[in-house]
């Protein structure tokens, strides 16, 4: 999706490919894009010439995006925040704090399996020419996604003057995994003029990336109340010292002693009490468990792009594109979990945080039950997208284009896990031994010679439960679009755009679930299963660095044998949800331009009408919904001076529910932490789209003149008024789930459009390469800062699901502030840059409503320091070195807005990476 006149590598300018944004971009002066600075220059030109507020990333060269993957590049854009790092990459992208992003490929909608959007990290950057992030909307853009829209543009043969070949290879070393992952790509493109058939072009672009990874996590469990150490007969109940207080006594649900899942948790003041049979009983809060996991795996992403173009004349052009995106991930989660909540024996000293009733350390907790679990997961996605498009100049005044796309995507996952368990004599634990990281060790019996604190001895463990699950999500779509542009003979009206879009979407989900009780046999009976890890957490925590676990990968590779040991066979997948959605939309947009006191004023005014019919079937039930909406939009651009531009925009957007949110089937998970009841979740077929009214103002100053064309400072102010956020309602139910021997209590969560919110803020960006003398010429900086203020009304419910009030909280995933800065140097054959990205603490999600700690889980501030270096050996050969997470940051979470010290939760260690590569093109 190159702007007119913007080319890649050493290519010369040619006719640009047709995209939804071609009509927003004017002809630019010709220059060559090669290197980081030129990439920034091209992106600034796109921003400047677009009527919408758009930020872009342009490839530095064929096969070279600015970072290892698309999401890493996007995190350096103004207003972009990322989170959910893990498995060797970043998992979630948000635009101005919101993560429901519409994703398109060369203007056509794309998705993964039964989802509504594409996982951006699944798109290899070696296939990309350019990425545009639309922060405002015009009526010709697809309506879904209130956060914004990301359009990914791939290479086409008509982007290049003639033959182009580009080869690239890299090896990425993951420090914690101590392995190298290969990354290869190749592009072959050519175009020819025929005697009578016009011009044709062909392109093949292939990519393969393999990423080994290792993530390590240490976690202090959730909080629950305990009686104080004295013990007493209180409220008609006999308590032993440090006995745990469950919400109900004796399994009676009426008149619970305390309600789990309160937003602020139980009171933490010294000497706080609970009412038990009318008597005030003092309590303290301590964790129910400590656990840690050593998560390793290898992820593979093959991709292929084939593009054929034919221009029989200057007034017609046809393009066929075929894409394959693959994802294959095999992982082994080595989990160790130990309860610390037993009261049936002698206890050592208990230390509280000063001024609270919260336990920091317990020097002796007896007879602790623990388990290890070897969890193997194999996931695979295959996505195919085929598009045939054409564009025609009917006359000087009328242009048409149309596209027909067929897409299929299937996601399959298999989960197979075996546990080993034991009861140990005692554990000593400090839930926060410093900087939010817990420490613990096991205590041996001095009267025996058995070193039971050595967690690697198979004789100490028994073979426990088996878990055998599978899922398949499938999706397909046939999409037809037709767009036109008419240039009337009216001076004020530049053009009239109009179009239709029809999308016929199908999706289905199927699953199988099978759990089996423990074998009751010692682990020594299965020597082929032993797996012992080492070097856990790099010695940065006072926790066991090694433990034994059933080898999940070995079990997975011989699954039928181990099923037979449990008298099980593999269950078939059962479809539990099927949806068909037909979306018809149409738009009209008027583009205008005029002059006010000699200053250019132009803009767009339009509206998009959307009509969606959704038919669902689930088990024995079915449902149908039909919704329509008119979405107006308008934008103004005023040229105060040739280099100072002001913008204003208003648009209404919507977010349709994800299909899995519509699925009313209930998934039940039994109690695994002895709280007394399990959890359950399901969807709601009556969900309506979330709607947003969007207001934007921007001021942009471009400086440096035609000599550099790469300097700018800009600021944007924005506000989002959002209606119908989807939040979960919770209530207690009694059900007999598959595998249950009788009725069992569950806390059931189901979504509803029960929340409204507002988000406002501003963002500031800078790109500056000053004119410096001598060797300092080539230094520059790219920087941005984003400030956000968000609020959301969340209904408060009791254990029966009744609304008892409303709570105003920040939106999930929104940091109040974030910034990034990149220091760059490019001169002669050398290019280097050092980048730092930081975001403030934020509310991430809500814990399962089972415990006494605050319900909200927050993430501590997150940061990453990265470095890149390139050296152009010849005009055709470039060598590169890239490094990420240089400071090996720890990523942490905690309960409650101000609970980083007393309510610490998890700490994660991710790998530093170092990549060495080469690119060759001719």
Summarize the structure in short.
The protein has 922 residues and is mainly β. 4% of the residues lie in helices and 59% in strands.
Comma- or semicolon-separated keywords:
single chain; 922 residues; mainly beta; 22-stranded antiparallel β-barrel; five-stranded mixed beta sheet; 48 strands; globular; disordered N terminus
Question: How are the secondary structure elements laid out?
Answer:
Blueprint: E1 6-8, E2 31-33, H1 36-49, E3 54-58, H2 70-74, E4 80-86, E5 89-95, E6 101-105, E7 108-109, E8 128-134, E9 148-154, E10 164-174, E11 179-193, E12 199-220, E13 223-227, E14 233-234, E15 237-238, E16 273-276, E17 279-287, E18 289-313, E19 316-339, E20 350-352, E21 359-393, E22 398-430, E23 439-442, E24 462-486, E25 493-516, E26 521-522, E27 530-532, E28 548-550, H3 552-557, H4 559-565, E29 574-596, E30 599-618, E31 621-641, E32 644-655, H5 659-662, E33 667-669, E34 678-681, E35 690-703, H6 705-708, E36 711-735, E37 744-768, E38 779-797, E39 803-809, E40 817-827, E41 830-839, E42 842-846, E43 856-859, E44 862-872, E45 877-884, E46 890-895, E47 904-909, E48 913-921
Parallel strand pairs: 1-2, 6-9, 34-37
Antiparallel strand pairs: 3-8, 4-5, 6-7, 8-9, 10-11, 10-48, 11-12, 12-18, 12-47, 13-17, 14-15, 16-17, 18-19, 19-21, 20-21, 21-22, 22-23, 22-24, 24-25, 24-26, 25-29, 27-28, 29-30, 30-31, 31-32, 32-35, 33-34, 35-36, 36-37, 37-38, 38-39, 38-40, 40-41, 41-44, 42-43, 43-46, 44-45, 45-48, 46-47
């Amino acid at each position: 999706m190159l702007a007119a006149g913007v080319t890649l590598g050493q290519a010369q300018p040619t006719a640009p490919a047709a995209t939804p944004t071609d009509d927003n971009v004017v002809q630019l002066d010709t220059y060559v894009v090669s290197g980081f600075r030129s990439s920034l220059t091209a992106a600034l030109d796109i921003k400047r010439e677009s009527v919408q507020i758009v930020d872009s990333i342009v490839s530095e060269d064929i096969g070279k995006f600015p970072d290892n993957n698309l999401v890493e590049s996007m995190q350096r854009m103004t207003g972009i925040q990322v989170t959910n790092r893990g498995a060797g990459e970043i998992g979630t992208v948000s635009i101005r704090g919101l993560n429901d992003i519409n994703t398109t490929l060369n203007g056509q909608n794309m998705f993964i399996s039964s989802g509504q959007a594409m996982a951006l990290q699944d798109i290899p950057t070696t296939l990309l020419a350019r990425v545009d992030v639309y922060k405002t909307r015009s009526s010709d853009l697809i309506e879904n996604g209130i956060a914004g829209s990301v359009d990914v543009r791939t290479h086409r043969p008509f982007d290049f003057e003639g033959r182009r070949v580009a080869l690239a290879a890299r090896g990425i070393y993951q420090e914690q995994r101590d392995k190298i992952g290969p990354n290869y790509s190749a592009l072959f493109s050519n175009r020819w003029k025929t005697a009578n058939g016009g011009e044709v072009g062909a392109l093949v672009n292939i990519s393969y990336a393999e990423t080994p990874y290792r993530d390590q996590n240490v976690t202090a469990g959730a909080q629950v109340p305990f009686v104080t150490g004295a013990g007493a007969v209180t409220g008609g109940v006999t308590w032993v010292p440090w006995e745990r207080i469950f919400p109900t006594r004796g399994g009676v649900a009426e008149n619970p002693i305390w309600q789990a899942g309160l937003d602020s948790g139980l009171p933490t003041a010294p000497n706080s009490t609970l009412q038990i049979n009318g008597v005030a009983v003092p309590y303290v809060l301590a964790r129910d468990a400590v656990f840690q996991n050593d998560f390793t795996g290898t992820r593979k992403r093959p991709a292929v792009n084939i593009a054929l173009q034919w221009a029989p004349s200057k007034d017609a052009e046809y393009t066929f594109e075929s894409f394959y995106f693959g994802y294959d991930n095999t992982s082994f989660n080595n989990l160790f979990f130990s309860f610390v909540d037993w009261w049936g024996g002698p206890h050592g000293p208990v230390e509280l945080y000063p001024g609270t009733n919260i336990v920091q350390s317990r020097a002796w907790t007896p007879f602790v039950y623990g388990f290890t679990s070897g969890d193997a997961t194999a996931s695979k996605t295959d996505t195919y997208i085929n598009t045939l498009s054409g564009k025609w100049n009917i006359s000087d005044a009328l242009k048409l284009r149309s596209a027909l796309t067929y897409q299929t995507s299937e996601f399959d996952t298999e989960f197979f896990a075996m546990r080993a368990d034991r009861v140990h004599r005692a554990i000593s634990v400090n839930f926060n031994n410093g900087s939010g990281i817990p420490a613990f060790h096991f205590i041996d019996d001095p009267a025996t010679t058995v070193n039971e604190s050595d967690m690697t001895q198979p004789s100490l463990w028994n073979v426990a439960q088996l878990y055998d699950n599978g899922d398949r999500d499938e999706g397909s779509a046939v999409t037809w679009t037709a767009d036109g542009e008419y240039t009337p003979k009216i001076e004020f009206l530049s053009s009239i755009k109009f179009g239709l879009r029809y999308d016929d979407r199908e999706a289905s989900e199927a699953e199988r679930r099978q759990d089996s009780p423990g074998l009751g046999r010692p682990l020594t009976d299965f020597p082929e299963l032993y797996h012992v890890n080492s070097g856990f957490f790099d010695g940065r925590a006072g926790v066991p660095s090694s433990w034994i676990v059933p080898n999940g990968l070995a079990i997975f590779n011989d699954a039928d044998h181990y099923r037979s040991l449990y008298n099980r066979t593999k269950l078939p997948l059962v479809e539990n949800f099927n949806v068909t959605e037909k979306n018809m939309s149409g738009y009209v947009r008027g583009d205008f331009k005029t002059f006010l006191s000699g200053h250019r004023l132009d803009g767009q005014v339009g509206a998009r009408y959307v009509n969606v019919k959704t038919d669902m079937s689930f088990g024995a039930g079915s449902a149908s919904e039909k919704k329509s909406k008119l979405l107006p939009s308008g934008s103004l651009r005023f040229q105060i001076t040739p280099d100072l531009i002001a913008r204003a925009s208003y648009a209404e957007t919507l977010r349709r529910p994800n299909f899995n949110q519509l699925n009313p089937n209930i998934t039940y998970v039994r109690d695994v932490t002895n709280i007394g009841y399990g959890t359950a979740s399901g969807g709601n077929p009556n969900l309506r789209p979330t709607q947003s009214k969007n207001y934007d103002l921007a001021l942009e100053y471009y400086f440096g003149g035609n000599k550099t064309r790469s300097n700018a400072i800009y600021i944007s102010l924005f506000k989002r008024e959002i209606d119908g956020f989807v939040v979960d309602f919770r209530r207690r139910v009694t059900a007999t789930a598959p595998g249950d021997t009788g009725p069992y209590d569950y806390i059931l969560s189901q979504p509803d459009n029960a929340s409204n919110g507002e988000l406002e803020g501003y963002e500031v960006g800078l790109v500056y390469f000053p004119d410096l003398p001598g060797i300092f010429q080539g230094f520059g900086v790219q920087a941005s800062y984003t400030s956000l203020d968000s609020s959301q009304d969340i209904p408060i419910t009791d254990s029966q699901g009744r609304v008892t009030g409303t709570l105003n909280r920040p939106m999930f995933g929104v940091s109040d502030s974030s910034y990034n800065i990149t220091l760059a140097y490019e001169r002669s054959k050398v290019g280097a840059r050092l980048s730092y990205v930081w975001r403030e603490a934020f509310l991430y999600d809500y814990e399962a409503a089972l415990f006494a700690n605050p319900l909200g889980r927050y993430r501590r501030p997150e940061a990453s320091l990265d470095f890149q270096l390139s050296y152009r050996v010849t005009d055709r050969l470039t060598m590169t070195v890239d490094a990420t997470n240089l400071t090996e940051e720890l990523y942490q979470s905690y309960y409650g807005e101000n609970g980083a010290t007393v309510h610490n939760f998890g700490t994660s260690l991710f790998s530093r990476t170092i990549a060495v590569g080469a690119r060759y093109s001719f």
